[in-house]
Design goal:
The chain is an alpha+beta fold. Helix content is 49%, strand content 14%. A six-stranded antiparallel beta sheet has the order 5-1-2-3-4-6. A hairpin with a 2-residue loop joins strand 2 and strand 3. The two termini are 28 Å apart.
């Protein structure tokens, strides 16, 4: 049986992560003008390589399958609205992506290198060096990715593109990006100044909105939880 408290905390952390990286999904996507003119050395990629596209705050990952094809996990709300493959196979727009993250709907799909990278620079197998893990054979990596193609639940913290890639590449699904975000949240929670700040905000809400259960309870409960956690 799932713990409601853990689910609530997980949901809050995911929304914080989405908000903190909102620039990634702005209407003017990175490299939008550059994407049409960027040339990638596709011949230098090997089947099973991990392709990494650094963004402003997050990094997107995919597995190269050969023949200018990249398997990667993409949130897409359209998957929950239609079964029309002609519509869902089109390049995912920012609006579809954002709503897909919120709705936790995604697919592991195949796109061209150009559509995957969207004009950004590509790093190859950089995770091998940063994680210092032994990678599986490239053919095994590609086969794992191909077996997972299709719809999948999405979670910024527990099941994102990095989890998909590290499972295929190393046999274990991990996400250093999500782990780093959680560590930053822990640091904030453990900082006693957070208790004081939440108490001040709670008192301000009572003063502005009046003494009611929806203002009083959070004003007491949140600082208390932060104090206990710290």
């Amino acid at each position: 049986m799932k713990n409601p408290m853990l689910e609530a905390v997980s949901l809050v952390l995911e929304k914080l992560l989405l908000i903190s990286n909102f620039k990634l999904f702005s209407s003017g996507a990175p490299g939008e003008d550059k994407a049409r003119n960027t040339f990638y050395e596709i011949n230098s990629f090997l089947r099973g390589d991990v392709l990494e596209v650094p963004r402003t705050h997050l990094t997107h990952y995919g597995i190269y399958l050969g023949d200018n094809r990249v398997a990667h996990m993409m949130p897409d709300i359209l998957l929950a609205l239609t079964d029309d493959k002609e519509l869902t196979q089109k390049v995912v727009s920012n609006k579809r992506l954002i709503l897909g993250v919120i709705g936790r709907v995604a697919s592991i799909r195949v796109d061209t290198v150009e559509d995957f990278a969207y004009g950004a620079d590509i790093l190859v197998n950089n995770l091998d060096r940063s994680l210092k893990k032994k990678a599986l054979l490239n053919e095994e990596v590609a086969r794992r990715a191909e077996k997972l193609l299709g719809m999948t639940p999405y979670s910024l913290l527990w099941n994102n593109c990095e989890h998909f890639v590290t499972y295929c590449r190393f046999g274990t699904a991990i996400s250093p990006q999500a782990d780093k975000f959680c560590e930053n949240v822990k640091i904030i929670i453990r900082d006693q100044r957070s208790v004081l700040a939440s108490a001040v905000l709670g008192l301000a809400s009572i003063v502005c909105l009046g003494l009611a259960s929806y203002t009083t309870l959070p004003a007491i409960f949140i600082p208390f939880c932060l104090w206990m956690a710290g």
